[in-house]
Amino acid sequence: MIHISVYYFGAISLILIGLYAVLVKKNLLKMLIGLSIMETGVNLLLISVGYISGRSAPILSEGVGPNQAVDPIPQALVLTAIVIGVATTAMALSVAIILYEKYGTLNVEEIRRLRG
Amino acid sequence: MVSVLKRSLAIITLLIIGYWIAQAFAGVPFGQDKMLVGQYYLNNVKAQTGAVNAVTAVVVNYRGFDTLGEVTVLFIASTGVGALLWKRKKERTARTEGSIVLTTGTRYLFPFVLIFGAYIFIHGHLTPGGGFPGGATIATGFLLLYMAFIVYEIPHKGFEVAEGLVGMGYVIVGLIGLMIGGYFLFDWIWQTWQLGTNNIGRLLSGGFIPVIYTIIGLKVGTELSGIIDNMIKEEVRE
């Protein structure tokens, strides 16, 4: 057995739940929701890698010196990732809107050209 | 039968992938100090950027060029949504007004939502947040208007002009840095003018971080509002 922190476990579970939705669900919107859940899992995983026990957020106010703060870099990365995630989700949703207008359904098995 | 087979196959695949990821992360100790570059940023953030919030200092100051790319990605996404959903004639097609709670609440809350968004992005160098959450908050205000009133549309002309101007503003701030300091996105307000040197931790500090975050906030706000507008309106055939 491998021992990992409960934070890693939760984040990895979120990734897997999202991947399950992407693999199994037939409704496009549900697949996109799965993608969003996966994204959240990845973000949480990055954040928890940067966490250091007993330290506070990397805002150097009173009582928080450079040695009492967690790693700022994963948080900056995740800030970027969230924005890119919003952008890709918006694109994917507009593709879904077009598909619905064209085929009248969001079921990927009925949309013949997307079968696979 | 097929569905059960497919599901069990998916679950087995997921378990393998999960085991693999977990094994990779078993080698990453949780909660221990493993900072390399991060410690440098934390030690020098106040002296080099004047910001208190190390995360936004990394995003805007140390990695400002990446953030310009990020804003570009957001711009491309908003343009892409516009291009994908382009129709000859689009109008609001909602038939019922929002409930009285929604309309009244929107009428009173809208200015405060905008002020709160502006507060978030102006204080990006001091508090959690910054341009992207602030811009998203502003877009939320416009989403409220769209949901509450059936005829509401954003002022398209003004929004497009504002979007272009603030996008240009980011590059211009970077180019001024190039002229003064020798490289693109040099923090001229902090390093050359040294504005707010004894003011660290208050609003008027942080070099160009508040300036750039105001630009980013306005850009994200207008772009997300544009995306909302594109998604809500539908084609009208004569």
Write the layout of secondary structure elements.
The complex is a heterodimer of chains A (116) and B (238).
Chain A: H1 6-24, H2 28-50, H3 72-103
Helix pairs in contact in A: 1-2, 2-3
Chain B: H1 2-26, H2 37-49, H3 54-62, H4 64-84, E1 90-91, H5 100-122, H6 131-148, H7 156-181, H8 188-191, H9 209-232, E2 234-235
Antiparallel strand pairs in B: 1-2
- Proportion of beta-strand residues of chain B: under 5%
Question: Helical region count of chain A?
Answer: 3
The computed structural class of chain A is: mainly alpha
SSE run of chain B: HHHHEHHHHHE
The first-level CATH class name of chain A: Mainly Alpha
Strand content of chain A: under 5%
* Overall helicity of chain B: 55-70%
Overall structural class of chain B, as computed from helix and strand content, comes to: mainly alpha
Broad shape of chain B: globular
**Could you give the count of β-strands of chain A?**
0
Distance between the termini of chain A: 36 Å
How confident is the prediction overall: mean pLDDT of chain B? 89
**What is the count of distinct domains of chain B?**
1
Provide the CATH topology of chain A.
Answer: Helix Hairpins
Q: Strand order, main sheet of chain B: write it out.
A: 1-2
How many β-strands of chain B, per DSSP? 2
Unreliable spans of chain B are none
- The dominant shape of chain A is elongated
- What is the residue-averaged pLDDT of chain A? 88
Largest sheet of chain B: 2 strands, antiparallel
Oligomer: heterodimer
